[in-house]
């Protein structure tokens, strides 16, 4: 190799080395950076470990629903003659809500009364025949067969009276069934028919929806991990944000079966609402005072209950 070529290669090598030294940080700087990063990570971990868990009273959400509700249809069919109440009306147990046209049933009732009168007259006649037969038998003018026949006729007449009484009672009940009455006190939430409508019994025609709002029930889903801290009779506070109200109550019942899907049970809290100050269906929060929960418990409880509308 010539001296000129060797000199050129040496010069190129020196230039490359100097360029690499300029781009790479000094070793001292790398040594100082690594301990600083490690120290910052350790400080963050220590701060997280030292932060206390957030605790608060357990709250579960639910809905303040009526204690019972039902849809009503009459036992009899016919033309709906009159509706005596409307939506939002409070009714007492036994109050007449509507009246079907009773003309056909009234005719049946009148016929049943006539049939009973006829049966009573026939029974009286049969009883008279039996008395005469017995007197004739004593005088020797009547055989045993004649007396037995009169006794049989009197027995048949008595049974016909019983049958006529049953028919009359059935007609009276049918007439009573043309009036639909409230099975319990509550609020009429829906009227599902109108006057003049033909009401059928097969299928049953629904006329009213009735809800008992004198007692409200709040049902909350309690996760199984919290069951050991909740029991029947435990005092709670029911918060109703929509009407800015709070009510003191207690747990009425807790089912003894855990739902296999949600891994929770539905605790029931009853609210006295005899003043009818609370409308049914309100969103509610149930606070279990004294039962402290951490952030994880709060997340589980929030997932278990309904979301606020």
Alpha plus pi helix count: 5
- What helical percentage do the residues reach? 40-55%
User: Sheet with the most strands?
Assistant: 6 strands, antiparallel, barrel
Give me the CATH architecture of the largest domain, please.
Answer: Orthogonal Bundle
Please write the string of helix (H) and strand (E) elements.
Answer: HHEEEEHHEEEEEEEEH
Q: Judging from the principal axes of the Cα atoms, what is the shape? A: elongated
C-alpha end-to-end distance: 90 Å
What's the number of domains? 3
Number of strands: 12
Helices, strands, pairings?
Layout: H1 3-23, H2 27-50, E1 56-72, E2 78-83, E3 90-91, E4 96-100, H3 103-138, H4 144-177, E5 179-181, E6 186-191, E7 198-199, E8 208-223, E9 235-240, E10 245-253, E11 264-272, E12 282-293, H5 295-304
Antiparallel strand pairs: 1-8, 1-12, 2-4, 2-7, 3-6, 4-5, 6-8, 8-11, 9-10, 9-12, 10-11
Describe the structure.
There is one protein chain. The protein is α+β, with helices and mostly antiparallel strands. The protein folds into three domains: 3-50; 56-67 and 214-304, Beta Barrel (Elongation Factor Tu (Ef-tu), domain 3), CATH 2.40.30.170; 69-199, Helix Hairpins (Orthogonal Bundle), CATH 1.10.287. Helix content is 40%, strand content 30%. The chain has five helices and twelve strands. It has helices at residues 3-23, 27-50, 103-138, 144-177, 295-304, and strands at residues 56-72, 78-83, 90-91, 96-100, 179-181, 186-191, 198-199, 208-223, 235-240, 245-253, 264-272, 282-293. A six-stranded antiparallel beta barrel has the order 1-8-11-10-9-12. Strands 5-4-2-7 form a four-stranded antiparallel sheet. The chain is elongated, with a radius of gyration of 44 Å. It starts with a helix and ends in a 5-residue tail after the last helix. The model is unreliable at 1-25 and 27-39 (pLDDT under 50).
């Amino acid at each position: 190799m010539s001296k000129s070529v060797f000199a050129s290669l040496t010069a190129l090598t020196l230039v490359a080395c100097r360029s690499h030294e300029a781009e790479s940080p000094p070793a001292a700087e790398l040594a100082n950076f690594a301990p600083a990063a490690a120290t910052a990570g350790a400080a963050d971990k220590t701060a997280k470990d030292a932060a206390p868990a957030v605790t608060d009273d357990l709250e579960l959400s639910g809905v303040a629903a009526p204690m019972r509700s039902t849809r009503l249809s009459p036992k009899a069919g016919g033309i709906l003659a009159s509706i005596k109440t409307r939506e939002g009306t409070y009714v007492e147990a036994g109050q007449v809500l509507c009246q079907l046209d009773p003309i056909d049933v009234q005719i049946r009732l009148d016929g049943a009364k006539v049939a009973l009168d006829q049966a009573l007259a026939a029974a009286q006649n049969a009883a008279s025949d039996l008395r005469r037969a017995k007197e004739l038998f004593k005088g020797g003018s009547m055989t045993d067969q004649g007396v037995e026949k009169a006794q049989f006729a009197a027995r048949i007449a008595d049974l016909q009276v019983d049958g006529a009484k049953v028919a009359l009672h059935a007609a009276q009940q049918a007439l009573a069934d043309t009036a639909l009455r409230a099975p319990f006190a509550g609020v009429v939430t829906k009227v599902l028919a109108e006057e003049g409508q033909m009401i059928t019994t097969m299928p049953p025609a629904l006329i009213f929806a009735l809800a008992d709002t004198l007692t409200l029930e709040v049902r909350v889903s309690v996760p199984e991990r919290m069951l050991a801290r909740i029991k029947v009779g435990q005092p709670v506070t029911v918060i109703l944000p929509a009407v800015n109200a709070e009510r003191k109550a207690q747990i009425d019942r807790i089912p003894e079966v855990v739902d296999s899907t949600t891994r929770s049970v539905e605790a029931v809290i009853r609210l006295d609402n005899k003043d009818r100050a609370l409308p049914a269906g309100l969103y509610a929060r149930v606070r279990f005072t004294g039962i402290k929960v951490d952030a994880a418990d709060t997340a589980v409880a929030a997932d278990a209950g309904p979301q606020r509308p």
